[in-house]
User: Fold these one by one.
Assistant:
Number 1:
Amino acid sequence: MINYGIAFNIFSFYYIFVIILVVIKTMLETSLKVLEKIEEKGYIAYIVGGFVRDYILGIESEDVDIATNATPKQIMEIFDNSVLPNEEYGAVTLYVKNSRFEVTTFRKEIRYINNRKPIEIEYINDLLEDLKRRDFKMNTLCMNKNGEIIDLLDGRTDIEHKVINTVGNSNFKFQQDSLRILRAIRFATYLNFKLSEDVKEAIINNKEALKGLSYNRKKQELEKIFVSQNAKYGVELLLELGLDEPLELYNLEKINLKSDIIGIWASLEVSSGYPFTSNEKKIIQRVKEVVNSAITNISLYKYGLYVNQVAADIMGIDKLTVTKAYEMLPITSRKSIKISSETIMNTLKRKAGPYFKDIYNDLETKILEGKLNNNEKEIKNYILENYSKGD
Ligand code: ATP
Ligand code: MG
């Protein structure tokens, strides 16, 4: 008998695989055309970095990096739909056929500041020199306009061995720019590569410099690690190399990776320097409150389904149980309490007043705790018994 479930899975797996191949091929064709357009004007240009690395591995890239001897100004003259990002000096972003291209002029980075940004760069006319300033060997692979791969610094060997090595002296590379430490962990996680022993040692030697890296950058890189399918390995690397301390992640060993990114942060104790929007802060604080107490009708009513589901993930409680409990709530807002303000006034023979609030708070809790039915007659009796004398 044919197992249609398995047959369907094989079919859908094959289908997704074919789609990825088509996307990579289309992106490649567009990229080669971009190179041709630059070279037609007498410059040289290569695809470099992530796209070539991922192409060899059969992985889809989000964008394409191009290295050229044309200056940003010359690139902008060739492509009239280009924009110059303020953030990175000397790079032009192009959008061609829905693909994003980061075009950077060959350069030498002369001086670095605060273990991060180069404060002085010099445009050069030499691809090899440009490749030497890059972070990892696997990120130095290039492709020319004919689709041929150029491997001047032996990046392919690292890809074949699934290992990450820096270009040149590791200690120097991490000292120059501490962001590279997190990039190393991120790539290792995402590609499921090892860090060479040399890289590990250099990371340990330079990890304190992470304290000086902006919280924004740290958060961005950490989130890419945490949401990866292979996040567990990334967290193991962070712990093995002792990066949790300089990153001010105080209980990384307790991280809950099963949740979405908000749930992941909620399972961590981190420095207050990490930037979150006020809404994110509110959700994280509520999730923590639920995790530290319990999921009850009150927590479901007060904070809604999402916060409780995230808390359930962290607490190891089945989400379906929480959804069912939410659907069974006797009330979902104050409006669904089956007594009107008018009936309360008539029952107590009192005028409206601030005492209403206390009564409603009490009714809400009693109904949610299952101590009172949401039924007008019963609520009226309860109010008479508890609120008819005094204030
Ligand atoms: P992905 O785009 O998948 O994150 P990528 O390798 O393309 O990976 P980018 O941040 O797009 O990474 O950078 C493009 C290339 O620029 C890298 O491949 C690398 O050669 C170089 N590069 C980027 N950041 C650094 C850095 N901090 N130090 C040295 N080289 C870098
Ligand atoms: Mg890239």
Number 2:
Amino acid sequence: MRLDRFISHHTRLGKKRSRALIENCEVRVNKHIVRDPLLRVDRFDTITCGSETLQEHQAHYLMMHKPAGILSATKDPEFKTAIDLIDTPYAHELHIAGRLDRASTGLLLLTNDGRWSKQLTEPEQNVAKVYEVGLRDPIEERYHEIFANGIYLAYEDHTTQPVTFTQLNERRVEVTLHEGRYHQIKRMFHAVGNQVTSLHRTRIGKIELGDLSTGAFQTIEADAIF
Ligand code: URA
């Protein structure tokens, strides 16, 4: 929303008087005096007019090491959710940016900033997600070509983007995805006749899970991921 509209809406002053306030250096956005009435502001900007705070709402960005058995959801009548593990006053505001299946473990991102989580899934951002995958049967050479050509997912009528993987041992691979279809890794290995026995996410964009212990969370910077 434009700053002059925001001021007008929150002070009930007309547009002309709102613009005058801005031009008289009475309005601060995130502590800085702003003189441009056309500046775009959003719900996470702190906006003051003289000594009065018109809006103060902080954006939160968190990473968590999701344990197995925890649901990637905000609320659930049956299972404990990732939000249930967060003991901050703003936990109820958060949502999950990129789910993991209940049995899967590893890096989970949470935020109250919907624009940020949407950005993570935009193809132009090309955010890589890295998984360590355990498999029931030994990896076969043919998987490389099949994954590179993409796998057709009938339900979505979508062929996956080329996927490469590095073999870690006979039944373990590291897979990097640049998209996030429902159960994508499980479905890809199912398509070649194998079965995923464990799935652990180690990285999203530039954020590494590192040695964050299971069930723990910490705050991150919004731009740390890109
Ligand atoms: N692919 C899956 O199959 N499951 C996940 O949790 C993530 C990617």
